[in-house]
Amino acid sequence: MDEQAQAAKKTLLRMIPYGLYVLGVRDGDEVSAAAINWVTQTSFTPPLVAMGVKKDSGAYALLKRTGQFALSFLESGQGDIAYAFFKPTTVEGSKVNGQETETASNGAPVIAAAPGWVEGRVVGEVDLGDHSCVVGEVTNAVLKREAKPLTLDELGVKYGG
User: Fold this and answer.
1) Where would I find the Flavin reductase like domain in this sequence (predicted)?
2) Rounded to whole angstroms, how far apart are CA atoms 117 and 119?
3) Cα 152 to Cα 143: distance, rounded to the nearest angstrom
4) What are 135's strand-pairing partners?
5) How high is the mean pLDDT in each 10-residue block of the chain (161 residues)?
């Protein structure tokens, strides 16, 4: 790819709107949570979401073991919560990375301050590159309030290859 095409690729990839979510996973007493931004709905029936999950993360390792997850949706203004999950997971009581959590019905942690979340089970995966595209079937959803989603653009962060 020539230099002009490389520049075009970077610019175009930055134009894709990215929301911010917290992926929560639990296996017994082991908990992991990570901020992710590659998420999209891929089917109505059954309800499916695709998530890009970094393969060298603790969340990915637990996701592979358990096949269960919860995905907390962050709202505009919750950048501090997103940033808390850009680092390895720490758990102190009901707090994960310093953020108060609740427990989804499948046992995964969810962000208490989030406007809502979905729970699911892994039904497929495309394992290519440094992130795996994990497909999950939504098995439950909780909406506390409607909200405008938090985006990378709001945080002034650019993510493109």
Assistant:
1) 13-159
2) 7
3) 22
4) 50, 124
5) 85 83 97 96 97 96 97 98 95 96 97 98 96 97 97 82 51
C-alpha closest to that of 23 among 57, 65, 46? 57
Q: Which residues contact 88 (CB under 8 A, 6 or more apart)?
A: 58
- Per-position DSSP letters for 5-50, written without gaps between them: HHHHHHHHHHTS--B-EEEEEEETTEEEEEEE--EEEEETTTTEEE
* Predicted pLDDT of residue 160: 56
Contact 161, 18 (CB under 8 A): no
Residue found under tokens 């059954």: 46
Rounded to a whole number of angstroms, the distance between the first and last alpha carbons of the chain is 13
d(CA 13, CA 158): 9
